[in-house]
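Work Package 3 (structural annotation) set out to generate three-dimensional models for the target panel prioritized at the project kickoff. During this period the team completed the workflow that converts sequence records into discrete structure tokens, so that structures can be stored uniformly alongside our sequence database. As a representative example, we reproduce one entry of 282 residues exactly as it appears in the project archive.
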Amino acid sequence: MTGATAAAAAPQRGADDPAPLLRVEDVSVRFGGVVALDGLSFDVPRGSICGLIGPNGAGKTTMFNVVSRVYEASSGRVLLDGVDLLRLPPHRIASVGVARTFQNIALFPTMTVLDNITVGAHSRGSGGWVRAAFRLGNRRNDSAARSDAMALLERLGLAHLALRPVAGLPFGTMKRIELARAMAARPKLLLLDEPANGLTHSEVDELAAVIRGLRDDFSLSVLLVEHHMKMVMGISDRVTVLNFGRRIADGTPSQVQRDPAVIEAYLGGDSHADEPGGGHRG
């Protein structure tokens, strides 16, 4: 598969294949005269882990911000189970099944691990995250949310830290806590924005296993932005490659790694792709 061919053709499915969970159709984003995304289209099949990679400024995090309604698209559609997310107000995105993590950890440092994860369940109720954070909601709902949060901590091997404040915990542990908080929203689609950034080799390997396990146990679809190429290629079912806001390749990891356009634009210059957080930044 050549880069030109991949860029020209829309993602293909067989006649009997189920519709993808997420379908991005011809999305463009402009900031003044700067084109951040230029007619981008790709699919995230149900139950899959899909990598979204590319050099600095390729538009990966911009795409995440469009899906989560942080940014407004100039044109196009983003369909989740047939519902156009771009027609929904930002506060509705979590409630229809989208959760994400961020490049920079955004936990409440003085709150306990358990309370941080309980906040992630706010999208399932009507109280909002502020009420959840200060435990001002309905007692029954709060009890159910804390029970679910504790189950997630146990699933991720963090139950022993439930009552510890987040402040002072190791960086890799905080990454897992943020992942648990996203999972507390019971998403259909989990957006992971550079989850391996700053982790050691062993932590990256453990994280890869955790992501696979969560996908399998919770019937998730995962869209992953990550510069650690060994991890991306090791756990992704499909990989979409961006450059200057456009898709230059889309396929299985083995197809993408052989694509001349990808090698020229990204992989060929990535001599540190196997290092923790290695590769191009941004």
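Residues 207 and 213 are 10 Å apart (CA to CA).
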